[in-house]
């Protein structure tokens, strides 16, 4: 039986690091960030989870490989079957086998959701973060990213996974410096101001922190790059379409209501860089109820 990511030993690394005088805030360099993230008790990647991550950049992985890998974890298997039987996919008959479930969902989508299953279940929001509100925000970001990626001709599953992962960086910040997360959550700031407050307090925002964690977990370079750039994608010389999709998705998820008026507040340079148009977006706004839940 495959085991899920270990949750043992997880605690804010801020306590240990400050006791050992190793963390000086704000963090100044990417090298210091890498050392800080490596030292803050990230969840251990299980063998199954690590192999799933490896398939994200393996174009040769096929249905049989993925089926056999997922079958090693009964909890993940049950989750995949639950996703495939969701009314969203409109299957006429009950889906009872992994092979059928993967056929319904598609290889790319199953890989992304299986990786997300392990990662999200490995993290628990710290003190000050309301659990349901947090995970709902993550799912909304992922749903909007998938919608935007399809419209922009990008990999929808990669966009879904990247957007889902961004705010996990906030949970890692909670292990680096718990008071920062408590202050950010208490302030209840709009997403861009939240990123700014994180940068002011620890030197990096949640996307940049999550990018470093993803790098250490050997996620594909394109996904790491998207996480790195997603908070301010138009400021980089090397444009990241995926990072820009994630940026817009985070803004949409932060809106109380997404409609013609609120869409006008999106940064026009980011929208146009993806070849999108506000008029088209207004006509095709997805319902948040269509965004699937992936946690156990």
TrEMBL record:
<protein>
    <recommendedName>
        <fullName>HDOD domain-containing protein</fullName>
    </recommendedName>
</protein>
<dbReference type="InterPro" id="IPR052340">
    <property type="entry name" value="RNase_Y/CdgJ"/>
</dbReference>
<dbReference type="Pfam" id="PF08668">
    <property type="entry name" value="HDOD"/>
</dbReference>
<dbReference type="InterPro" id="IPR013976">
    <property type="entry name" value="HDOD"/>
</dbReference>
<feature type="domain" description="HDOD">
    <location>
        <begin position="42"/>
        <end position="233"/>
    </location>
</feature>
């Amino acid at each position: 039986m495959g085991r899920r990511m270990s949750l043992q030993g997880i605690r804010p690394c801020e306590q240990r690091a400050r006791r050992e005088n190793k963390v000086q805030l704000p963090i100044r360099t990417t090298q210091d960030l890498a050392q800080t993230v490596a030292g803050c008790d990230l969840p251990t990647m299980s063998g199954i989870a690590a192999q799933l991550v490896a398939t994200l950049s393996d174009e040769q992985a096929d249905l049989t490989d993925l089926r056999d890998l997922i079958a090693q974890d009964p909890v993940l298997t049950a989750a995949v079957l639950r996703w495939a039987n969701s009314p969203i996919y409109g299957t006429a008959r009950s889906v009872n086998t992994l092979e059928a479930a993967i056929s319904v969902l598609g290889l790319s989508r199953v890989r992304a959701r299986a990786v997300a299953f392990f990662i999200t279940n490995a993290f628990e929001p710290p003190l000050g973060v309301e659990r349901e509100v947090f995970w709902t925000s993550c799912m909304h970001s992922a749903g909007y990213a998938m919608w935007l990626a399809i419209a922009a001709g990008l990999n929808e599953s990669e966009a879904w996974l990247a957007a889902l992962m961004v705010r996990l960086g906030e949970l890692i910040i909670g292990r680096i410096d718990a008071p920062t997360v408590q202050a950010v959550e208490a302030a209840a700031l709009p997403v861009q101001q939240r990123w700014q407050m994180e940068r002011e307090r620890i030197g990096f925002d949640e996307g940049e922190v999550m990018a470093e964690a993803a790098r250490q977990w050997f996620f594909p370079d394109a996904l790491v790059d998207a996480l790195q750039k997603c908070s301010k994608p138009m400021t980089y010389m090397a444009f990241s379409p995926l990072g820009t999709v994630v940026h817009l998705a985070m803004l949409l998820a932060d809106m109380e209501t997404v409609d013609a008026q609120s869409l006008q507040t999106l940064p026009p340079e980011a929208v146009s860089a993806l070849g999108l148009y506000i008029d088209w977006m207004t006509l095709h706004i997805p319902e948040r109820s269509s965004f699937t839940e992936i946690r156990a």
